[in-house]
Amino acid sequence: MKTILGREIPDYIEGYGHVRPFQGAFSDVGVKTRTAVKLTSVIPNDQKVLSSLEDALDKLNITDGMTISFHHHLRNGDYVLNKVMERLAARGVKDLTVAASSIFPIHAPLVEHIESGVVTGLVANYISGPVAEAVSRGKLKKPAIMQTHGGRARAIESGELHIDVAFLAAPTADNYGNINGVYGDAACGSLGYAVADAEYADKTIAITDHLVPYPAYPIEISQVFIDYIVQIDSIGDPKGIVSGTTRITKDPVALIIAKRATEVIKASGLVREGMSFQTGAGGTSLAVAAELKKIMQHEGVAGSFASGGITGYLVEMLEEGLFRSLFDVQCFDLKAIESYRDNPAHQFMSASMYGNPHTKGAVVNNLDIMILGATEIDTDFNVNVTTGSNGVIMGGSGGHSDTAAGSKLAIVVTNLMKARLPIIKDKVITVTTPGDSIDVVVTERGIAVNPQRGDLLEKLKMTNLPLMTIGELKLLAEKITGVPKGVETSEKIVAVVEYRDGSVIDVVRKVSSVS
Amino acid sequence: MKTILGREIPDYIEGYGHVRPFQGAFSDVGVKTRTAVKLTSVIPNDQKVLSSLEDALDKLNITDGMTISFHHHLRNGDYVLNKVMERLAARGVKDLTVAASSIFPIHAPLVEHIESGVVTGLVANYISGPVAEAVSRGKLKKPAIMQTHGGRARAIESGELHIDVAFLAAPTADNYGNINGVYGDAACGSLGYAVADAEYADKTIAITDHLVPYPAYPIEISQVFIDYIVQIDSIGDPKGIVSGTTRITKDPVALIIAKRATEVIKASGLVREGMSFQTGAGGTSLAVAAELKKIMQHEGVAGSFASGGITGYLVEMLEEGLFRSLFDVQCFDLKAIESYRDNPAHQFMSASMYGNPHTKGAVVNNLDIMILGATEIDTDFNVNVTTGSNGVIMGGSGGHSDTAAGSKLAIVVTNLMKARLPIIKDKVITVTTPGDSIDVVVTERGIAVNPQRGDLLEKLKMTNLPLMTIGELKLLAEKITGVPKGVETSEKIVAVVEYRDGSVIDVVRKVSSVS
Pfam families given for it (chains A, B) (predicted)? Predict the structure, then answer.
């Protein structure tokens, strides 16, 4: 069986099930269902605060084969997943599926639970560090399922991803389960990725180190979705949760890329009143924001919104009137947290509102300009941000596919070569985002426009930008680096890459060299 | 068939269906289901703003027998329900059920649609004015269904009340359907009663007279729940939406009642750190707040929250530090709207979060003190706020039953006689709220404690308050007024009174004298 992109995928994958192959970014639309939810009603005088995590695990009655979920707002400072898994392992529970919105290096102890069979399934939008390596080595019994941020919300809301128990790390909680991320030692700001878990899991428990008098405010997740609350000493390490500041790159090559990307944006005609913009927190991405800011200021343009994970840099643009509002699914730095807490124009969005394709309209649908990264791009503009050039999992879509699909202008910014390897290939090892969603690739040596965007190409021809075909760009790099040899993979599928609509866009196979 | 209160109810009511008789305030608890929702996904470049209401009605395809819904935040200034119904009547649609959270005198044109068969069903939490009279006269084909604020949210979320199309009056909306009530000519503040409609209707349309650039903020109801937006000239008359200020009564009898109610509160021991409080917007209710405020200030007590429909008076208490937060399901005056807009401690709550008994914990569950009104009370403490002493519908539960059930101390404040008729009866004409939920009745002549609250009676005996039994209180009034003759009713059931859990607590029968 082949996807519309020509990738070979089995029609049935052991441990995953029947495969619905990817058929195009908007092939699966129309009438959709948000699933029914069972809940246990709470009456006056019922107590939700439990004495300990052990007490909670007794009440939650987690049994072999269940799916438990976590959100990743505490990023590489998260203590909650590890603490919960340690206790569950000690209880002898087996065959759990961990549905975490993302997995970071701090979650290394999960590898042991994978090896011991406590965890046999993993569903995440992004996996990095030791767990990613363990999955790539084929240690997980079932293939990992890699989703997008919007796709995860869709999967949960549709009932495709059923969560038995959601563990919600809560920087602040009151005794009835009202939660926010803006106060407490582990403050992380927006809790956008946790919303679907809270709303759709059979049971939900807030784990907090900052229990405040009722009612907490602001309320990001309401008491009506929380069964229990447990207080522990610490839910996370602030140093791993947010950076103090996010900085623009000083690398001269990255600055050239950023400048060119901004010229592409300008030439596209999208720098206009009401424009919208999203970029990541990486140095090059922020440099694009810095360049774009100059143009917006120069042209006196006020945008409508910036969205996504929010940095202090976007906050400054908001405060300077360059955007009317921010949509924040997670805060990347302290300045973003403070702004989100204090400025009503800096708004909350759930992962579903952000990028779920099966709602009445996600925020990405209104996005004009999206700045994206890539570990590989192929000559069909397909992008890989899931595996490294060695075929080992080192990330995942996150919001990549969601924003690429929604935005009017999706720009991949990347060095033409990284670690002496070319970025552009005939075929990417893993397709994360389909080429149809990518409009242009900007490198320090040249710019390639997707042939489907003849309109954009015409506009860019009016500039002095170094335009070339993606094939030419590929050759340019290969002249310097030579043609890299392909990665050899075995038949074993270690991860299934789901597109945002739940179809399978690719699989990750076990790399022969990493055994 | 009898309810647990001994009211005779048929086990099947034509036009309503099988009856589940009321069995006690918390008899229907445990595992509950929030129903599945079908929605049509929206993709980039889909336009949600339609050119006119006519265009919208074409798209919405409303056919005979459907249920359409409205919220009542524009109260007696609402133009939306009338405009929509006028257009639907012109289109010849028949047999509609109107599920409006409340019906006011301004909705008088609905009577014509009832008479002509355009509307044959009505579901509401509160009905006053000409529509109430028309229902009482038996003009509606099916019995009206009268719910509570929390019960309506429960009915919608459970799927019991299925809404085909929700019409959402939106004081502010953007072109993707983000809605708030705090800006625009028809600003009304919180849109708490509209949330379940938006989330669970098959189709939703925002009708606004204030279309703002994307994205609107704050967002009370998200774009992900809105199919279409239509702009019209005016959605409501500000004079009918909010009062400029809400005032405390100057009536000396009401002030005595308020003072005594506050002494009851004080004696109950509930004036303490973290206390919570709710009262209505009526003069006597506000007078209780004023008295309570003095005591809280005197004792240096800081409460946790006040809730419900919010008035400027509660805003002042928030601002003076007497409460840490307000939970606002609707704003009664301009001061409340401004506070709700500007003060993060003044928080939004949906009707479901307010009072739905089938969530993981409504706000009413945490309520200490609730001040309630009554048109009649019987010697079992059952309260009627649905029908007048003539048996004609003049209101409904609203949040009466929800708050009475949830609160630790539910106090009915009322004059012992109104319009020369005694308020306390052997049996109320219609039971709205069961006596079990009522703790004490405070009148200007005496105070009666529910015998189930022996603990409270003991505390009140330590005061000089004029305690008596409810029977003694009844006799006291009858000595002055004589025993009123009962209202004669026919067999015909004109309204079914649903308790918050969806069981039937009573029925309203057609009054013989109003034919």
Answer: CitF
